[in-house]
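Example 4.3 (complexes with small molecules)
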Amino acid sequence: MPLRIESICRTHRALLSDFQNPHASLVEYLKRYAVRHAEKDLLARTYLAIDDDAGTPQLAGYFSLATVSVERGAAARLPALDRLPRFPIPGVLLARLAVDSRVHGQGLGRYLFEEALGLTLQLAQTGPVAFRLLVTDALDTAAVRFYEHFGLAPLEENFPCRMALDLFPLLVGVAQPR
Ligand SMILES: CC(C)(COP(=O)(O)OP(=O)(O)OC[C@H]1O[C@@H](n2cnc3c(N)ncnc32)[C@H](O)[C@@H]1OP(=O)(O)O)[C@@H](O)C(=O)NCCC(=O)NCCS
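Answer. The structure with coenzyme A bound is encoded below.
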């Protein structure tokens, strides 16, 4: 399925109306808040995966990115982070990720996660800010298992379950900006 990723804006509204996912909160966010958060409130930026295969564009999935700060004590379960000085640890928050129910199990979740991670690493490598983590809040045990696939580890036990990926091993050796 050939997909393109686009940063959400008001011209996408018609594309959002048909999106289906078992998590009503992820559908509601997309339809009610995603454009507003990106364009007006500046709380999160949503990226759409659009499928042009059928002639008319279809929304296959989306993810949203924002920033986050993790209390140093909350990172104690991850040994590499437990050795850091006692300051909050900054990161990018993968605030939401969802695939349309009609195309689950076809690799789109992996595609969206890799796009989100790619944007995050690009910002860490070439942006003017430093941060250490990719963080997400998994909604249920299935989501925890999905994110564990990609190396994220739970920081909490309850749901939503905060999970994190230490970006250091992915960034080490890459030239830092001057
Ligand atoms: C979780 C979700 C995004 C997965 O999307 P998907 O397109 O069906 O997933 P993919 O087909 O890309 O699978 C990617 C990998 O994760 C694995 N995976 C997918 N769902 C999984 C689950 N529930 N448990 C364990 N592994 C899972 C797949 O086996 C696959 O592994 P592989 O690449 O090694 O074969 C999708 O089911 C969804 O939208 N769920 C509801 C929303 C949600 O929970 N979002 C995440 C938390 S906010």
